[in-house]
Amino acid sequence: MDIDFTRLRYFVAVADELHFKRAADKLMITPPPLSKQIKLLEKELGGPLFERGYHDVRLSPLGERLIGPAREILRQVEEFKATAKHGVQGPAPLRLSATAYAPSDLLAQLETVLTDLPVPTEFGVPGSGTEVAAKLIAGQAELGLIHLPAGDKRLRHKVVASYQGAVAVRFDDPLAAKDLVAIEELLDREVVIDFARPNPVVLAGLTRQLNSRGVHRIVRTTNQRGGELEMATAVFNRHLVALVSYAPDSFIGKMFSPPEFKLVPIDESNWPPARIALAWAPERLRSRLTEVEQAAEQIADRLGPVHRGA
């Protein structure tokens, strides 16, 4: 039996998403050819890989048995390609993907550190931490910069930065007169946490933290990357309180600076700092695991550790 590696890749993508449209988007194709290739693969294998319901898609018993071997075959194919490329072109680059929601000054510092590493590197900022984690699990990056907690237990991580929390308010807001804010002072305020929305795990954790302190009036101003100006406009016009990291030198910190705004740190004695980490997926690295873990240590050493606070 000859198995098409492309069909295997399609099978894994649908298994990851359990949704044909999302899998097609991830593969950058349309759903009809994806569905056709899955059906051809099922015909070759002699049984259905998925149980298709009206609203959901699940792995069939056959799919459950084959998804592990399929991932391993694709990993070996990628490793074979990397080995061949290494033999022809030299060492494979260390690919690092970073969440676009990390403070911009940390991203700039990270990019500088990467240029000084003794191995070739490729740096990219694909989007949210969830997208970065997906790249790590898919073997499309060796290292990723993400906010903790990580939503996938297959990832290991090393903390490289922590940021004290802060509130961003209008210049004439009562909180703007303070040097330090306690979370309890937000009980009767409408609070924006839109920076966490692209990462469901971080969003859920932050929402639980606020709710446990009695802060329940959480409002949405934007739900997309690049909505910072939209959020700042809403904070200004509606007298909202934006919960952000205390990073005055970042793009966000400068946007929420005087004269229109004030960035006020949150008392760390009862509100934990945001943690940012380098993450990697050991099962995807295999022969490069030691190299990548050493690179993570080198990057962490050269970055600091970074702690931003008032």
Automatic annotation (TrEMBL):
GO molecular function terms noted in the UniProt entry: DNA binding; DNA-binding transcription factor activity
Tagged with keyword Metal-binding: no
Keyword terms of this UniProt record: Activator, DNA-binding, Transcription, Transcription regulation
SUPFAM superfamilies: Periplasmic binding protein-like II, Winged helix' DNA-binding domain
Gene3D superfamilies noted in UniProt: Periplasmic binding protein-like II, Winged helix-like DNA-binding domain superfamily/Winged helix DNA-binding domain
Top-level taxon of origin: Bacteria
InterPro entries: LysR_HTH_N, LysR_subst-bd, WH-like_DNA-bd_sf, WH_DNA-bd_sf
Signal peptide: none
Domain HTH lysR-type residues, every copy: 3-60
GO cellular component: protein-DNA complex
Family recorded in the similarity comment: Belongs to the LysR transcriptional regulatory family.
Role of this protein: Required for the induction the katG gene for catalase. Involved in the response to hydrogen peroxide.
This protein's name: Probable hydrogen peroxide-inducible genes activator
Organism: Mycolicibacterium novocastrense
